[in-house]
Specification:
The complex is a heterodimer.
Chain A (H helix, E strand, L loop, with lengths): L1 H32 L6 H18 L4 H22 L9 H23 L15 E2 L6 E2 H23 L1 H11 L1 H6 L4 H22 L1 H4 L5 H4 L1 H11 L5 H20 L6 H13 L10
Antiparallel strand pairs in A: 1-2
Chain B lengths: L7 H4 L1 H5 L19 H16 L4 H23 L8 H16 L5 H25 L2 H21 L1 H4 L24 H23 L1 H11 L1 H6 L4 H27 L9 H14 L5 H17 L4 H18 L3 H17 L1
Helix pairs in contact in B: 3-9, 4-9, 4-12, 4-13, 4-14, 5-6, 5-7, 5-12, 6-7, 6-12, 9-12, 10-12, 13-14, 13-15, 13-16, 14-16
The chains are: A mainly alpha, B mainly alpha.
Chain lengths: ~290, ~350
């Protein structure tokens, strides 16, 4: 029993880390530009497909694809930010929602057109498959890799935000965009860079998530609620809040599927309703 | 907030007759719901359509039903400013309620329709309490989550709803005991048109009432409305439940006229398509909902025949284009154009 609890906890944390990796970009862009981007999952999906394509067509090893995925998806994000997203920063949330749903639909249709409606397989390298057994607990090696990767990324993000000049500028822009711009901070450039960073991370999340979340064209719609939930519960514009929210969601979701499989997705929606009923502004909510 | 288009209050057709002098005098006329010639002409179109296109009556009733559904979203989104990503939850609830009644021995259509609306209103009440509390983002997620929750629930409860196979085998008794639901959809079309027209009148009365005006006020600035003494939350809950009842009625109509309820009546796709219809036609004008539904379904009928996958792509492109280049939709664009022409003449 104790072992199963630990195992569920471990899987939940791994799942939550993955959710965090994908959603953190959404949280920052939502806090920074006040932009409701429902198409965020599409960037994750694009990362996943790019990873699969690089492995199958170019024969690259799994780990080597990740930096490439990050760069490519970040570039795509930056390009879209420059051409489309920036035009809607001052639009109403309704316009932003419609626009990003439109982008999502186009991404879904395009993915179906290129790759077909089926799940894409991913061949993990040997040392990431199987399990290890420290102290009688079964730990999936890949899950361990996920947690490590996300922990390292989070630490790097934290250092970037807390210690560097760039991070200070981002934080200033989140707190008060107009005042930051008035102080000579190039808010425009900060927007592109953070957007690219966020989408790039989502792309990596999509790539490493194939084994856990699966990869098919409906991915952006299937997981839209999860990504939004992480941001809504964690509060937009921070790293700590979404991290906590993602871990909470991950553990509850995995525990629910393990212990009461017939309840299916209801656990997560129940959790959502409870949390949003008690914390309408999120756990670390700031005034909108 | 600055908007590229004048607010709906400033461009409704009634104000065109007497040109107001200043912005503050525009809202003051109550009741501002005199029936205009243009509206009569509009409502003659579906009647003419009945005689002109006897082969397309099934598509016609689909359009009328979608129009009713879009009308219900317009109430909460166009007037009260609540963006919902899960309005299909209430549509589906109404559809399943009416469908279940009809397949379990209650064949009378009008009471089935009422039951559908009532069921949707009943489930909307607790949902509305959650929706009303949140901010924009919270509302998006709650409505999206509720929509997915309902979908999942109907999927899991396959013993009752038929699950993926859908609910079929329902029998609908003749309307008023006289008019059989025929194979060509004649009764279905007229039935849908009648229901749509009656409920449209209700909506029209509602948005021109003090209640409707207070909703617009809440949309523009809910804090100011609260300090003016308007019970903001109660108003929003009321309009949410009313809109859900309308959506339920639309769902019930669909169930009764097609004698089938599928899981897709609860899907995210349906909620998203609904948003597109409304935005395509123009929000906050009631007629925009009807025009948008007609345009959307006609486009779907033509484009989706090619390939359903491409259709989703065009759908997305349409959304992006409307947001970037045609905010306000067809009616918003028309109003802007009319305003420019009048401005030049002056």
């Amino acid at each position: 029993m104790a072992a199963s609890v630990l195992g569920v906890l471990f899987d939940g944390v791994a799942y939550g880390s993955l959710l965090f990796l994908i959603s953190v970009g959404l949280s920052v862009t939502m806090g920074l530009m006040n932009f409701v981007n429902l198409a965020h999952g599409a960037f994750a999906m694009a990362g996943g497909y790019l990873c699969v394509a690089l492995m199958q067509r170019a024969g690259m090893p799994f780990l080597a694809t990740l930096p490439l995925v990050f760069l490519a998806i970040a570039l795509v994000g930056a390009a879209l930010e420059r051409t489309l997203y920036r035009r809607l920063y001052d639009a109403s949330h309704l316009d932003q929602v419609l626009f990003s749903i439109g982008l999502t639909f186009m991404a879904v249709a395009a993915a179906t057109y290129v790759w077909g409606p089926n799940q894409q397989p991913v061949r993990l390298p040997g040392f990431l498959r199987g399990q290890i057994h420290p102290g009688g607990v079964d730990l999936g090696a890949y899950r361990l890799f996920l947690i490590g990767l996300v922990a390292a990324t989070t630490l790097a993000l934290h250092l970037l935000m807390a210690k560097t000049r760039f991070g200070a500028r981002v934080r200033a822009s989140v707190d008060n965009r107009a005042a930051a711009a008035g102080l000579g901070i190039p808010v425009d450039r900060i927007f592109v860079l953070t957007f690219a960073l966020g989408t790039g991370l989502a792309g990596v999340g999509g790539a490493v998530g194939i084994d856990v979340l699966g990869l098919d064209p409906t991915f952006p719609i299937k997981y839209m609620v999860y990504f939004l939930l992480v941001v809504a519960i964690g509060g937009a514009g921070s790293i700590k809040g979404p991290a906590l929210a993602a871990l909470l969601l991950g553990v509850f979701d995995v525990a629910g599927k393990y212990y009461v499989p017939e309840a299916g997705a209801f656990i997560i929606y129940g959790l959502m309703l409870t949390l949003l009923a008690f914390f309408p502004r999120g756990l670390y909510g700031r005034k909108a | 907030m600055l908007r590229p288009f004048p607010t709906p209050a400033a461009v409704s057709p009634e104000e065109d007759v007497i040109r107001p002098a200043g912005p503050c005098e525009r809202i003051a006329r109550l009741p501002a719901d005199r029936w205009t010639l243009r509206e009569t002409a509009f409502w003659l179109m579906p009647v003419l359509g009945y005689f002109a296109f006897p082969g397309y009556l099934m598509l016609g009733s689909q359009i009328l039903i979608a129009g009713l559904f879009a009308l219900s979203l317009d109430l909460i989104m166009g007037y009260a400013g609540i963006v919902s990503l899960g309005h299909a939850a209430f549509f589906g609830t109404g559809a399943y309620a009416a469908g279940l009644l009809a397949s379990h021995g209650w064949h009378e259509p009008l009471s089935g329709l009422l039951a559908g609306a009532a069921a949707a209103a009943l489930v909307a009440l607790p949902v509305s309490l959650l929706v009303v509390r949140g901010q924009d983002l919270g509302r998006l997620i709650v409505t999206l989550g509720i929509g997915m929750l309902f979908f999942e629930a109907a999927n899991k409860a396959a013993a009752i709803t038929g699950g993926v196979d859908g609910l079929s085998g329902m029998e609908i008794a003749p309307l008023f005991g006289l008019f059989d639901f025929d194979l060509f959809g004649r009764t279905a079309y007229l039935y849908s048109l009648g229901v749509l027209f009656l409920l449209f009148l209700l909506c029209r009365r509602l948005v021109h009432s003090p209640f409707g005006l207070s909703l617009r006020g809440i949309k523009e600035n809910s804090k100011r409305m609260a300090s003016l003494g308007a019970p903001v939350e109660r108003r929003l809950v009321s309009v949410f439940v009313i809109a859900a009842a309308l959506a339920g009625a639309a769902g019930a109509l669909l169930a009764q006229t097609t004698r089938f309820v599928g899981l897709d009546s609860l899907s995210f796709q349906r909620s998203a398509e609904l948003l597109i219809m409304l935005v395509l036609g123009g929000t906050g004008r009631l007629y925009g909902a009807l025009i948008g539904a007609a345009l959307f379904l006609l486009a779907q009928d033509i484009l989706a025949g090619l390939d359903p996958v491409y259709w989703q792509f065009w759908l997305g492109l349409m959304l992006v284009a409307v947001v970037l280049y045609a905010r306000g939709g067809v009616l918003g664009g028309a109003a802007l154009l009319a305003g420019r022409i009048r401005g030049k003449r002056r």
